[in-house]
Amino acid sequence: MKRIVLVASFLGAFTAFAQHQNPENAKMKPEMTEFWDPEVAVITPAESNSNAPSDAIVLFDGTTEGLAQNWTNNKGEAPGWVVADNCATVTKGTGGLKTKMTFEDFQLHIEWRTPAVVDTASKSQGRGNSGIFLQERYELQVLDNYGNRTYRNGQAGSFYKQHPPLVNVCKKPGEWQTYDVIYTAPRFKADSTLFSPARATVLQNGVLVQNNVQLSGPTEYIGIPKYKFHGPAGIALQDHGNPVSYRNIWLRKL
Amino acid sequence: MKRIVLVASFLGAFTAFAQHQNPENAKMKPEMTEFWDPEVAVITPAESNSNAPSDAIVLFDGTTEGLAQNWTNNKGEAPGWVVADNCATVTKGTGGLKTKMTFEDFQLHIEWRTPAVVDTASKSQGRGNSGIFLQERYELQVLDNYGNRTYRNGQAGSFYKQHPPLVNVCKKPGEWQTYDVIYTAPRFKADSTLFSPARATVLQNGVLVQNNVQLSGPTEYIGIPKYKFHGPAGIALQDHGNPVSYRNIWLRKL
Amino acid sequence: MKRIVLVASFLGAFTAFAQHQNPENAKMKPEMTEFWDPEVAVITPAESNSNAPSDAIVLFDGTTEGLAQNWTNNKGEAPGWVVADNCATVTKGTGGLKTKMTFEDFQLHIEWRTPAVVDTASKSQGRGNSGIFLQERYELQVLDNYGNRTYRNGQAGSFYKQHPPLVNVCKKPGEWQTYDVIYTAPRFKADSTLFSPARATVLQNGVLVQNNVQLSGPTEYIGIPKYKFHGPAGIALQDHGNPVSYRNIWLRKL
Amino acid sequence: MKRIVLVASFLGAFTAFAQHQNPENAKMKPEMTEFWDPEVAVITPAESNSNAPSDAIVLFDGTTEGLAQNWTNNKGEAPGWVVADNCATVTKGTGGLKTKMTFEDFQLHIEWRTPAVVDTASKSQGRGNSGIFLQERYELQVLDNYGNRTYRNGQAGSFYKQHPPLVNVCKKPGEWQTYDVIYTAPRFKADSTLFSPARATVLQNGVLVQNNVQLSGPTEYIGIPKYKFHGPAGIALQDHGNPVSYRNIWLRKL
């Protein structure tokens, strides 16, 4: 903005703001608070957020080759998950997946789908269960919670057993859902104790479900989380036995 | 997740985490960290983020009636901006717009477009300039910065004169761009001094441009910002003299 | 400071700092960043921190009258604790104490002493146990931990079952110890959910034992803490059955 | 605490807290939230905070040898300041002092005295001016502000030109004053941009003057501060031309 037009526009709101300034402050020029260097890096956005902007790392592009290039199973071998229709599906017994690359702070986009055919004999955690482990430790839950209640801190959009989602914005089983995650890694001191905890903001299907929450440590199924020193680490996808699918995974280092 | 499969899957990453627990901690049961109540509210996402999820307030639906229902000009009168093709366009001399409703914390989606025909005689702040004032005070800059350099803390995606965007992810003039904003209002103490500053996270065209930044006060064109007590306040759109257009504006109270 | 002498003094450290400034920034004058109003309130410090500065509320001055004036027992009646030698001592069976006044953010000074004669048959939590409940809910533990080990998150200087102290800086039983506490109350939203958690910094005997820690909810003896809306509240002292003494209690509202 | 006595004592405040727990949560045992390892380090406090606790580094013990051991002038040579009566006094023209050791996070105790004989011809910044530079960059102002007004963000207890003190708790010229500082160093990312800003809490003469403030960059006499990457750094004392004295300087690494 320049104030020229604005002063005319929003007199009520803006005239009060100058009162704290002494005469010398008032003599400042606009240019004194304008900073030009360094120039902000220019990147190109994608058509939609399913697609990666120009500075992103495409972690999974929908091909078997792409999956093998960036991911291993938990034994460090080639992933055992089936790739079809541009997505990779949990293939029971082949174990979870983990990226070869490791990360600290990032913006992550990932799409997931729970099975269209619901096993109605299963409920709560038994339906469409998987999970995305940020830095291999902090689980953002993936679950079919469409008309399927579970404990609030274990449902889709939760940081498992730490933070319930702000709302349940799940789509129907068989429909693709999105997570957009802004993640800040924990930092540790020289003696390996915690300096600052991990933080995350998550949008599910475009709706805020985690608002800059602070994680209390690695995800624990039993007991109380506690931080333990670690460095950069990968993104891991859980094999929980249900054929959950993933696609369009991209990440921007922050 | 349940740990059953996971233990098999990610032994390396997870076995270490139990070591801090004394024998009694280890006897905890999974159910002891599962919280069911209150149930998380269920809402329905939209097809795309241009559309509002079920719990959002649609601030502008593309119609003249919709604009008049939710907005006024800065004199409290009906908005003078032209509505056409589902968007509202700054109409020079009619002043800025402001919502009738007021807000504290929110998630805001808004789309904007700078003029397709570029006035090449203008540059820097002179090209496609407008702005979105959160709570009528904190300006998220709107500007044509496609091939048009300006000071880094004044370009599109900046909190004007406070925080430059992390990247310049602008689209071409004449193309629609999106802002998705997660905003936390400042809080004040009983004596009107600041308790906690405003904070915001912004995605421009799906790309993170502001990562939980802390605002240092209301936007100032000249001088150094300083907080001043205020309560809930509206969203304001600036008339900076350029025919910038807006559409698909929705907001969810947080 | 003025830079005049400094520039000569610390050239190495300081000359680099001007490089981000464009020519206009460099033309700023020192006066432009000098703010005079409002004048900072003048108060008078005490001789030592056992004594209250001029703007403090003296919550306990060592007299029976002073205790009765500012405190009640948990039934709202006059305190049952014995006052002698300028201190008040937990008198078993009379219950805890609570201030009549309520507070939000504050600086608190308080002195405490565990019994000089140690019941060697008792150990861990059994020795010299009491506690200071900030806003009646958040317990800063008082315990005889001189040569008496207990669980780290339950010892003197801990926020009970939430944050162990950084060091064990306890004096011998029978010696007076000090806590200097800087406390920020939690804030809640209009719907009674948490906006920002309580935070505290604590010096024990002049040594930092809690460094701006974030409390996870009211103190729980069993289970996991969870915030519940509350407004301003008092300081409470626990009757845990041991004759722990208190003196020189003053508080400054922040 | 144990709940046994407490439940009887504070029924009103505490009974409500269990309501969020499901039946399984309620079956937790107290021991499940008690953590014993690692044992908290035991240290010995000093008689008063003028003296160092057992784990502190004594940076100045009042002797010429002690000063020469830990400090240099700004040319890396032996300090030129006069040591007498257990204190070191700024000796005009000899330049500032800087510790040989470097630090990140710390608790610092330092005592200072402005000249007993006031040069009444001087006022504002001209009277008893010196400064303590944390990590050689972030100035905690030292000034005679007893009956001597200056700009609020430049007086004793301020972080110079960034944060005015909460109160003016200055003693008379010629009297010893204390600063107790809790300092968290800024952290930087691998690309040298800021990860988290420096933070500090300061007690002057036992009274809170800075409450966990966030510094916006190295102290600037002219213009707007901006962070620049640095690692561990020393404590520096400013030679501003006035014979300000220092004593009892100790620091604990955090």
Description:
The structure is a homotetramer of 254-residue chains. Chain A has 254 residues and is mainly beta. Chain A is built from four helices and 15 strands. In chain A, the strands form three sheets. In chain A, strands 1, 3, 4, 6, 9, 12, 13 and 15 form an eight-stranded antiparallel sheet that branches. The interface between B and C is small, with 9 and 9 residues.
Could you give a short description of this structure?
4 copies of one chain form a homotetramer. Chain A is mostly beta strands.
Oligomerization state: homotetramer
Can you tell me the residue ranges of chain A where pLDDT is under 50 for at least 5 consecutive residues? 1-21
The helix/strand class of chain A is mainly beta
Number of strands of chain A: 15
Question: Could you outline the blueprint of secondary structure elements for this entry?
Answer:
Four copies of one chain form a homotetramer.
Chain A: H1 3-9, H2 11-14, H3 23-26, E1 57-60, H4 64-70, E2 71-73, E3 82-84, E4 87-89, E5 97-99, E6 106-113, E7 130-134, E8 138-142, E9 177-184, E10 187-188, E11 194-196, E12 199-204, E13 207-214, E14 236-237, E15 245-253
Antiparallel strand pairs in A: 1-15, 2-5, 3-4, 4-15, 5-14, 6-9, 6-15, 7-8, 7-14, 9-12, 10-11, 12-13
Top keywords for this entry?
homotetramer, about 250 residues, mainly beta, 4 helices, about 10% helix, about 30% strand, globular, disordered N terminus
